[in-house]
Design brief:
mainly alpha, two-stranded antiparallel sheet, 12 helices, elongated, signal, Putative Integral outer membrane protein TolC, efflux pump component
Length: about 375
């Protein structure tokens, strides 16, 4: 009981029963309602390909609608705990359950999409690196023929080309695996997905990462859009042992839970807030890491340019160029992965905040 009281204290502002403008009581302090028009996260992500894939996949099933088994509500569920039929309440709660399942599906698609985009970007980096390494090999060949360097340089260049080709094969295999998973989640073929990824304009991991913006770890946590909390709220307020309580009685029970329903609510709300708090931390950490990797890439690119120039002018050994090429590629691929980490943390944050669909049809609240 001490643990539950602590959770209640930590989440007090969000779990205080509120009377809304329509006269209904809510356990959520800022719930969303049917008819709210804020875009779901996949539309707000700024990536048109991700938006298209997600919306198309979700469109294969009917959108959640708050409708009773035998008709619609007609009016808002006002003071649901004072006499609305249990079947109507459960129908609305099930609409939020469905919205939650679709939000999870959208998250899975988003994460798979970011993995595919990351492999696509890494493949592009490796292709560019292989082309540069082949150029280095040609230079080593000409310098050996001119008697300027030993045959070892040309041998090392051949090894580098072989390793680069193997890296390309690995990236292609990674992209194939990512596309297979994305195809499973979206119902599209890998060929169609490959075309979308290759032709989509204004799309990619950098677009999603940029949309995340700066993270304020200490900003108030709002989880009023979470479908799971909406469903639990409706079922809680419709309970026989709850629906007769007024706001003061609800607040007293939630502040110091003695009933299982109150403990369940407090734990669910605290868990949702903890998830958002963790997501914010993960996103902030990923952004810091990415800034560091951007700096590493800038330094690696300068070192690589100097190494290439020095080798061509006969002022550096081929081994120096070998190390610079490998370091440059590793730095650029690490930057791709840090962008992916930002995107993944953003998608998880938007999901845990409940930035999905709001059930349509008759009012859900």
């Amino acid at each position: 009981m001490v643990r539950l009281s602590l959770l209640a204290a930590l989440a007090c502002s969000a779990c205080t029963p509120q009377r809304q403008a329509n006269g209904a009581l809510h356990l959520l302090s800022a719930p969303v309602h049917a008819g709210d028009v804020s875009a779901p996260w996949w539309t707000a992500s700024g990536d048109p390909v991700l938006d298209h894939l997600t919306a198309e996949a979700l469109g294969r099933e009917p959108a959640p609608v708050c409708a009773a088994p035998h008709g619609t509500f007609g009016q808002r569920l006002v003071r649901v705990f004072h006499g609305e039929r249990a079947a109507r309440v459960e129908a609305a709660a099930q609409a939020w359950d469905k919205a939650g399942a679709r939000l999870t599906q959208a998250r899975d698609i988003g994460l798979a999409y970011l993995r595919a985009r990351a492999w696509q970007a890494r493949l592009a980096e490796r292709m560019a690196s292989e082309a540069a390494i082949r150029d280095n090999g040609e230079i080593a060949h000409f310098r050996r023929e001119a008697g300027l360097v030993p045959g070892l340089d040309e041998d090392m260049a051949g090894i580098m080309v072989g390793l680069a080709s193997s890296d390309l094969d690995g990236a292609r295999a990674g992209l194939d695996r990512a596309l297979a998973e994305l195809a499973r989640l979206t119902g599209k073929t890998q060929a169609d997905l490959r075309t979308l990824l290759e032709t989509g304009q204004g799309a990619g991991i950098a677009v999603v990462a940029d949309r995340a913006g700066d993270v304020d770890r200490d900003a108030p946590i709002e989880v009023g859009g979470r479908p799971d909390l909406h469903a639990l709220e409706m079922r809680t307020l419709a309970r026989r042992d709850v629906r007769h309580l007024d706001a003061a009685a609800l607040q007293k029970q939630i502040a110091s839970p003695t009933q299982p329903w109150a403990a369940q609510w407090v734990q669910a709300l605290a868990g949702a807030q903890d998830a958002v708090r963790k997501d914010r931390g993960d996103l902030a950490d990923a952004q810091v890491l990415h800034r560091d990797r951007e700096d590493v890439v800038n330094r690696a690119d300068k070192a690589l340019a100097n190494a290439r120039l020095a080798y061509r002018n006969g002022m550096a050994a081929f081994s120096t160029l070998y190390v610079a090429e490998a370091a440059g590629l590793a730095a650029r691929e690490a930057r791709v992965e840090s962008l992916r980490a930002i995107g993944e943390a953003s998608v998880q944050l938007w999901t845990d905040e409940g930035r999905g669909e709001v059930p349509g049809g008759a009012p859900c609240d």
